[in-house]
Amino acid sequence: MSAPNVLVTGATGLIGQNFARRAVAAGYPVLAMVRRNSDRTALAGVPVRFVEGDLGNPETLPAVLTEADIVVHAAAHLGDWGPPEKYRAINVVALEHMLNAAVRIGRLRRWIQLSSQGVYPARHHYGTDEIVPPEMNNIDGYTQTKAEAEVVVQRFVREYQLPAVIIRPGFTYGPGERNALKRVVEKLAAGKMKIIGRGDKLLNNTSVHNLCDAILLAIEKPGIEGEVFNIRDDRLVTREEFVYTIADYLGKPHPRHVPERLVKALVGPIEAFARLRGSETAPIITRGQIKFLTQNLDYSIAKAKRVLGYQPSVDFQQGIVEALDYLTGKKTSCARTAASA
After folding, report:
1. Domains annotated on the chain, with CATH
2. 37: exposed, middle or buried (C-beta count within 10 Å: 0-12, 13-18, 19+)?
3. Where would I find the beta strands (DSSP E) of the chain?
4. Rounded distance, CA 1 to CA 128, Å?
5. Coil/strand/helix, residue 227
6. Residue 250: is its pLDDT beyond 90?
7. pLDDT band at 1 (very low <50, low <70, confident <90, very high)
8. Which residues have CB under 8 Å from 89's CB, separation 6+?
9. Are strands 70-73 and 205-207 parallel, antiparallel or unpaired?
10. Fewer C-beta neighbours within 10 Å, C or N terminus of the chain?
């Protein structure tokens, strides 16, 4: 019996390109969903079949699902700035179009919804598990619409028996990362990086290799439809370890600390001024960035270990070097070097 076809959306992004490689290595035929004019070099040499679809044009989406037995939905509109409607069109409306098409076609065996630990309430977390429901009034468009997307998926599970599983990764890093990690590198290189507060709070660091292992487990584990799993590295690092490790890699001095109270007092006026100007790019600091930089983000992975058999094998100190090698151009391959597939 032939292996089921795996459709990966967002196939040239950080999670998509790494999981496409992982799925191919595991013996799955992979359909890589890309926009018509997208740069496909991230998957150069990988034996995937490209299928064209655009979340911004829902009429293109049903065709990409006609041969898909498994969908890993990694595509999303990312960021921490801009109106929720900008995110909702991609993260919620397009998702609903895809789910309706999948139900009509009727061949889907498993839908893996890549969500985010950002859907939890914006506060300190010390071992928060999946029993805590998503916050439905989030502080930025991305996390707001990721929470809304979970509601849509769970509705399809209830009403149409959609065989879906929701994965909530933390801050994901690895070869191919070009958003948050890139900004940290740029700020350190320019001498503009600061650590807010003492830097002793934990980050929810998640190696993309550990995440890909978890996705594969979620595809292959029977009887988990409708379940939600937190995924992160086994060892979480403090903001100080995170920033200092990158600074050491770049040969840059460790940035100084600034009072957390001061930054929190300034973020409101900074965001208000940016909105008044109609800025389409994020200001120097946002409430979303403060959450990322100051809150303790320790989410339990006990359920993933117990139910999926998840055993994260890549440590931050191991995985961040591979990510930085790729980002700085020292290495150009996304092939897994940190741990065996």
Report:
1. 6-173+206-232+297-313 (3.40.50.720)
2. exposed
3. 6-9, 30-34, 49-52, 70-73, 110-114, 125-128, 164-169, 171-173, 195-196, 205-207, 228-231, 257-258, 297-299
4. 41
5. coil
6. yes
7. low
8. 55, 56, 77
9. unpaired
10. N
